[in-house]
């Protein structure tokens, strides 16, 4: 049963969060395994003669959204609806809300947002739509609302709202994360520490394809002076940031830049019958012997980790070791798919060591080399051989690890 939160965040302006914890979802965007769930956050502000709604909930929860909203205000009293990003997990309840509102409210968003809303929900929804220009300011209820576009975080329609007098940033997907934290804000450090890995996983899987825009857009916001002076950052998913507002954007910047954690090496491999596994044990042993911290994900006949979890480990890894079997003159399917997503979603300048095993023809290593050559990753070495590793193979594996360590030095 989804948990619903309604809490007053500020007295002046009168500001509320309406949050639902989606514990039904299993695969975000029908792709990414998220057993940790996700929240959808909407915000309601009463200021002067205006009642402003910032975003909504997923369409699946429209009935719950309207019931929750009615505890705070009659939907007919809403004067403005700000849509920062029209993906249906934030906009799905808006058509029913507008109907309950009698279409009185002005809908505010980017030009792209207007186009997408019409495409998703029809022309009626955008009849009273104001398409903002980047940096445009509007006076609403005695306050100044500044709208700043942040395209490709993670759609072209994305913007944030900065309430000038109160130094509030409504950031929607920017600043969000997976998970259903047992708090609405960052006041409890234990909650934050448990939550941040879900943020990393979210950023890589959802925004990773456009990760260069993370750094660019946060740099843009910093240049406007609003990040450092922000009193609060209020995302569309996860925790509100008010104890340390800049922290979430700093975390995003680190992910966007692929800032490494010293000594962390991501090790990903398949092993059908134990031949790759034997090689990877040697590699892992050598990594540990040299003071490195291998984080291991293995695909075997007993286990298959979520690729979304593997992706979440890439940004702060210093290096990656990929172990693959040759399978029907190709890379093993599990590794092939994982590697495809890594190169698409988490393409960073990091060194890679390839380890391979085969029965009658070694193909996987060469095919991985080709993929790596088309990416930002740097190939350190490929150690691939037939069947059970020999003493000579073992030495080549240890030498491959030593080359990786030299690369990191």
UniProtKB/TrEMBL annotation:
It comes from the Archaea. Keywords: Hydrolase. GO terms for molecular function: electron transfer activity; FMN binding; hydrolase activity; metal ion binding; oxidoreductase activity. Gene3D superfamilies: 3.40.50.360, Ribonuclease Z/Hydroxyacylglutathione hydrolase-like (3.60.15.10). The keyword RNA-binding does not apply. InterPro entries: Flavodoxin/NO_synth (IPR008254), Flavoprotein-like_sf (IPR029039), Metallo-B-lactamas (IPR001279), ODP_dom (IPR045761), RibonucZ/Hydroxyglut_hydro (IPR036866), Rubredoxin-O_OxRdtase (IPR016440). The keyword Hydrolase applies. Signal peptide: none annotated. Residues 265-405 form the Flavodoxin-like domain. This is MBL fold metallo-hydrolase. It comes from Thermococcus celer Vu 13 = JCM 8558.
């Amino acid at each position: 049963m989804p948990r619903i939160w309604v809490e007053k965040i500020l007295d002046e302006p009168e500001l509320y969060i309406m949050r639902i914890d989606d514990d039904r979802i299993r695969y975000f965007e029908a792709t990414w395994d998220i057993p940790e769930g996700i929240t959808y956050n909407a915000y309601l502000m009463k200021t002067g003669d205006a009642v402003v709604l910032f975003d909504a909930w997923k369409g699946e929860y429209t009935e719950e959204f309207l019931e929750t909203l009615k505890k705070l205000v009659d939907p007919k009293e809403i004067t403005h609806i700000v849509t920062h990003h029209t993906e249906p997990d934030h906009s799905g309840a808006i058509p029913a809300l507008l109907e309950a509102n009698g279409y009185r409210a002005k809908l505010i968003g980017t030009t792209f947002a207007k186009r997408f809303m019409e495409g998703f929900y029809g022309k009626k929804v955008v009849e009273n739509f104001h398409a903002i220009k980047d940096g445009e300011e509007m006076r609403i209820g005695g306050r100044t609302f500044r709208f700043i576009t942040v395209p490709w975080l993670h759609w072209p329609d994305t913007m944030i709202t900065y309430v000038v007098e109160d130094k509030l940033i409504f950031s929607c997907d920017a600043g969000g994360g997976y998970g259903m934290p047992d708090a609405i804000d960052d006041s409890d450090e234990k909650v934050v520490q448990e939550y941040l890995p879900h943020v990393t996983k979210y950023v890589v899987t959802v925004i990773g394809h456009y990760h260069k825009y993370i750094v660019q857009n946060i740099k843009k916001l910093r240049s406007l002076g609003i990040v450092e002076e922000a009193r609060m950052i209020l995302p569309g998913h996860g925790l509100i940031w008010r104890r340390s507002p800049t922290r979430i954007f700093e975390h995003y910047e680190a992910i966007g830049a692929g800032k490494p954690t010293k000594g962390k090496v991501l090790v990903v491999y398949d092993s059908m019958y134990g031949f790759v596994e034997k090689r990877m044990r040697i590699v892992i042993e050598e990594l540990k012997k040299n003071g490195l911290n291998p984080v291991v994900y293995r695909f075997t006949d007993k286990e298959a980790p979520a690729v979304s979890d593997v992706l979440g480990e890439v940004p702060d890894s210093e290096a990656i070791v990929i172990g693959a079997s040759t399978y029907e003159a190709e890379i093993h399917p599990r590794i092939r798919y994982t590697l495809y997503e890594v190169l698409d979603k988490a393409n960073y300048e990091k060194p890679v060591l390839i380890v391979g095993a085969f029965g009658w023809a070694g193909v996987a290593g060469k095919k991985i080399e080709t993929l790596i050559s088309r990416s930002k990753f740097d190939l350190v070495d490929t150690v691939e051989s037939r069947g059970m590793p020999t003493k000579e193979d073992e030495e080549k594996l240890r030498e491959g690890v030593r080359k990786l360590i030299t690369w990191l030095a």
